[in-house]
Structure formats: C-alpha cells, structure tokens
Amino acid sequence: MRAGPERSCNMSDNHEPDGLLKITEVGKLLASSTRHVWRLIAKGELPQPVHVGRSARLFRADVEAYLKTLRRLRDEGGATNQSGV
C-alpha cells in the first residue's frame, strides 16, 4: 500500500499523467519539428516545460490554448503569429 494521499490522474491516450505531452508529441500536434517547439518556448509563445526526470513535458491544456489562439488570430482577419505557424 502506498503512503500519502491518493491522487487521481487524468490519463491521456499516451498514458502521461495530467495531460502532459512530450516535446515530440507537441511537434506532431503542431505539424512541426521539435526544434520549432523549442523556439516557440524560447519566444514565450508556449510556456516553459515541466521536467519529469530528465524529460521535458508540456501540459496538453497549454498546447490547446496556443492552438485556440492561432485559430482566433486566423478568424480575426487572417493574421498569423511571427513564427508562421
């Protein structure tokens, strides 16, 4: 039996807890390279990742919010962000 309080986890299809995505998975969602994902993070367009061990992860909700912003910009007159995504 585990010590400490029980915590429920929202398990996504990739079995990452709390909707965490690997940088490679974020790249696939954005149809871009992992290098581009890191550039978006460096420019502040995506938040800093959390680290699980030595692996960087982004919250699915943050990536979805970024995509929603891109859609809103597109729908408000065809504007794109500086990254060209």
Structure notes:
With 85 residues, this protein is of the alpha+beta class. It has a domain at 20-75. The chain contains 3 helices and 3 strands. The protein has a 3-stranded antiparallel sheet. Helix 1 crosses helix 2. The longest helix has 16 residues, at 60-75. The termini are far apart.
Throw out a few tags for this protein.
single chain, alpha+beta, three-stranded antiparallel β-sheet
Topology of helices and strands:
Blueprint: E1 20-22, H1 23-30, H2 34-42, E2 50-52, E3 55-59, H3 60-75
Antiparallel strand pairs: 1-3, 2-3
Helix pairs in contact: 1-2
- Supply Rg: 15 Å
Strand content: 5-15%
Globally, the shape reads elongated
The span between the termini is 47 Å
Structural class: alpha+beta
Task: Compute the number of strand runs.
Answer: 3
Share of residues in helices: 25-40%
Order of helices and strands: EHHEEH
Uncertain runs are: 4-12
Main sheet specs: 3 strands, antiparallel
Strand order of the largest sheet: 1-3-2
The helix tally amounts to 3
The average pLDDT score comes to 82
